[in-house]
Write a sequence for this structure.
């Protein structure tokens, strides 16, 4: 199914805090999930990905958690910095013939206050 | 990751005219490219899949006669918005699929129809 965002939810945090951004995905057949960061006027920038055979993956200051039972994905950002302020999108891919084709979640606006 | 370049970054056109947007894969031969549209404060919505040497595949609700896609080479796909109207004003973003289902995005094109 399609995920359509009409008005993006927002998350405001203080610099240095940890941020958690959540996403519900729709297609139980999706086997690959990605988090993207999008700054104003720019294209999405890859942050971290996870495959459906995993439930957790860590990167630099970021962790993605996948709960396939409830079709939920989260992005944790440690020690959030003002430069992390952006819109964050989760995206899913069903693999197979839809290689590279993504369905995006609604997105969350993250604002980090100094 | 692959480098994707879009041109122009922004364009203003008069209602009724056509606008062409280019998407180039600079370091990767892409048999498939994807075109997305993003309205303000909303998520990315897939418009069509551009296939090198063959017809594009359009998502439901996207008019193929209005949004013409040409993918004549492994490094270039073009999207032409024909007879543009103010409601076509949006942020258009292309992507190419990577080797592991991930997608790499261009910087986007802001289209304003006046």
């Amino acid at each position: 199914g399609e995920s359509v965002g009409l008005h993006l939810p927002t998350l405001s945090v203080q610099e240095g805090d940890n941020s958690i951004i959540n996403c519900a995905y729709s297609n139980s057949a999706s086997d690959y999930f990605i988090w993207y960061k999008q700054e104003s006027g720019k294209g999405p920038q890859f942050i971290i990905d996870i495959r459906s055979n995993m439930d957790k993956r860590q990167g630099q200051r970021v962790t993605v958690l996948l709960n396939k039972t409830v079709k939920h994905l989260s992005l944790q950002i440690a020690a959030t910095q003002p430069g992390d302020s952006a819109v964050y999108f989760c995206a899913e891919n069903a693999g197979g013939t839809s290689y590279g084709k993504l369905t995006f979640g609604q997105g969350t606006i993250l604002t980090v206050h100094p | 990751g692959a480098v994707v370049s879009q041109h122009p970054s922004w364009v203003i056109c008069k209602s009724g005219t056509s606008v062409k947007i280019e998407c180039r894969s600079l370091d990767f031969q892409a048999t498939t490219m994807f075109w997305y549209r993003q309205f303000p404060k909303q998520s990315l919505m897939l418009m069509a899949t551009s296939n090198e040497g063959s017809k594009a595949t359009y998502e439901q609700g996207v008019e193929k006669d209005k949004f013409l896609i040409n993918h004549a080479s492994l490094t270039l796909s073009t999207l032409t918005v024909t007879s543009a109207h103010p409601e076509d004003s949006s942020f258009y973003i292309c992507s190419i699929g990577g080797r592991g289902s991930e997608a790499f995005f261009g910087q986007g094109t802001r289209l304003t129809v006046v």
User: Anything to note?
Assistant: Residues 35 and 90 of chain A are 4 Å apart (CA to CA). Chain A touches chain B at residues 2-8, 32, 34, 36, 41-46, 49, 89, 91, 93, 95, 99-107 (CB under 8 Å).
